[in-house]
Amino acid sequence: YEQVNVLGVDFTKITNNELLEQLKLDNQNHSNRFVITANPEIVLYARDHPEYLAVLKLADYTTADGIGIIKGAKILKTPLPERVTGFDTLGSLLKFANKEQKSVYFLGAKPETIKKTINKIHHDYPTLKIAGYHDGYFTNDQEIATEIKDSQPDFVFVALGFPKQEFFIAKYRQLTPAIWMGVGGSFDVLAG
Ligand code: UDP
What we know:
CATH architecture: 3-Layer(aba) Sandwich
Bound molecules: uridine-5'-diphosphate
Radius of gyration: 16 Å
Low-confidence stretches: none
Oligomer: single chain
């Protein structure tokens, strides 16, 4: 895919449908993938934090999560096709996982929130396999990473907020060939 640079961050020129089809293919091929849905806050933060910008560069797909990015790209005369948000992508992948009985690990949010999220997933996507889950307030990174690895998930959704979630994924993704994606506050939304 072509890349479009907006304020220092390379965005992937990709639509929602293309990303979904691509990730299904990646999953089929057991590829290890890192997806970032970057909003303007992330772009601004990366400008001031080179170590975070370096992590953004490790992503396989960086999508425009916000109309500000789309507008910026248009002004720069290197347009991006459409918004591709973390929440929408999460929804599409959960639907796919349910249909194809794929397994998913959920990491992040407060203990009571993640429980509600898991209940909701169980109800709305009954044939999706829950590989495991953990709240986002842990002290031993390595322990969680090992649990994820041992559960051999197809998808790992990390809701620790930025920049934490991207640092976590960049550090541990090589442990298991899954589709890894940071989903910010999405579990809070799902929990209702
Ligand atoms: N969070 C977490 N562990 C932390 C910090 C945050 O699990 O150490 C969770 C928090 O409970 C919330 C999400 O990460 O569910 C952050 O949501 P927010 O909307 O602030 O993130 P953004 O979408 O801005 O990245």
